[in-house]
Amino acid sequence: MGKSFWSLYAPVYEKVMQPDRKLYQLMFERIPERVAGKKVLEVATGPGILAKKIAPVAREVVATDFAPGMIKEAKKGEYPKNLRFEVADAKNLPYEDASFDVVLIANALHIMPESEKALKEAARVLKDDGILIAPNFVEHNANAKSTVWTRLLELVGVKFEHAWVAEDYRKFLEDNGWKVQEFEVERARMSIAYAVCVK
Question: pTM, whole model, 2 decimals?
């Protein structure tokens, strides 16, 4: 799945994710308290759903995606002046070391080839006392709904690089040098593991 695939998918992304609004609500409720007054980098922002939600409480938000079409979609509508959208590769970020208080990667690591490189880049641009917020889909085939949804996504070209169960995802974060401070699984069409980590 390259930039052209995600750029093509960008205009319908938010509608397709509507059945998962319960999971987005979980993130909408929890993330703002963690980013209040902070400089935040969001990796794989997609159409900017989370970035627009958290920007009002953050000091500054830089929301990135490697697909230009996603960034074009994200820039539509009104959003706070402290939020900017940029095209950037999660595995080769164009930012200086230790330049962010928070790095946010939501629901992206499971579809990202060599996602460990994205975690390494997140650690590089994060301040020593910063946090990584990395909620991610897990347990892709835990029930009939998640199995059907996974198969549908695969049919339209979404490739899952990882199909973690919750504890495997936690271990993946730990194996890549992160200390997991919070870890909670929320069940839905496709369950999400809400993870907050430090270096």
Answer: 0.83
Over its C-alpha atoms, the chain yields an Rg (Å, rounded) of 16
Distance of CA 2 to the CA centre of its chain: 17
The pLDDT tens digits for 141-164 are: 555 454 444 555 555 555 666 789
Q: Locate tokens 């070209």: which residue?
A: 157
Share of the chain above pLDDT 70, in %: 76
| Domains in the chain with CATH codes | 3-198 (3.40.50.150)
- Whether 18 and 188 have beta carbons less than 8 Å apart is answered as no
- How far does the chain reach from its first CA to its final CA, in angstroms? 29
Give the integer Cα–Cα distance in Å for 15 and 127. 35
Contact between residue 125 and residue 62 where contact means Cβ atoms under 8 Å apart: no
Gap between the Cα atoms of 194 and 167, Å rounded: 12
Please state, in angstroms and rounded to a whole number, the distance separating the CA atoms of residues 9 and 44.
14
